[in-house]
Input
Amino acid sequence: MSPVMVRPSNTIVLLTDFGTSDPYVGIMKGVIAGLTPSSIIIDLTHQIQPQDILEAAFLLSTSYRQFPEGTIFTCVVDPGVGTARVPVLVAAAGYYFIGPDNGLLGFLNETKDKTIIQLRNHEYFRKPVSATFHGRDIFAPVAALLARDGAEIIRDLGPEGDTLMDIRERLPEITQTRITGTIVHIDRFGNLISTIHRSHLDGLFHGGTFSVSIKDISVPFVRTYAEAPDNTPCSLLGSASHLEIFVKDRNAQKFLNLQTGEKVYVTGNNR
Output
């Protein structure tokens, strides 16, 4: 067992694709409150596109460091619920992550000091365990008990694992001349956010200029939203330092008629 784990806090952050029109999120909160009434429950988002593991992994990976150490992230985007995919708890980077091992937590493979626990001990689950709602019956109870009883229970939850399933599309493809990324999230403003990070641009272009395109459309790179000309698709680095496509005061998704999964290309101007 890794010695680097911090004490779990009583803050539990939920991320799901459940939306808010059904009772599923409320039920998970009820289970947590019943086991740990003092817990603080924060909704990161419940508007992940249904079954979109890549979008969930992206938003989690770009958000979790904004929370205090010890925070417990409970993540349910789980199209394989009830199958052989394994529920896991991961202690990494001073945080705790609970969810299915289906690629959602794969970005944590990049963290050197981590502990992966396969959740096998049914004594910590709500009974009976449904084949379709592990958020209620496995993930929420484990999160609540971790917040209540501390890291000492981790040894009892199940055996250790070696690595986590990852998603190939999570990182852009980089050649000597071009970066190819993917639109992975569309925010409520219609901005198209890609998997291309500032570090990818700096690593290939070393501060030089570059050109951005999507769907054979050139999108000028600017520093702020306000700099963009009217009715012109442009690109910039957003608050999480990821490249995004936008149209000033407009909805870029509707303006360009694009969805997640679309490719974005960045090419150096001096090559």
Q: What stands out?
A: Residues 134-149 form the longest helix (16 residues).
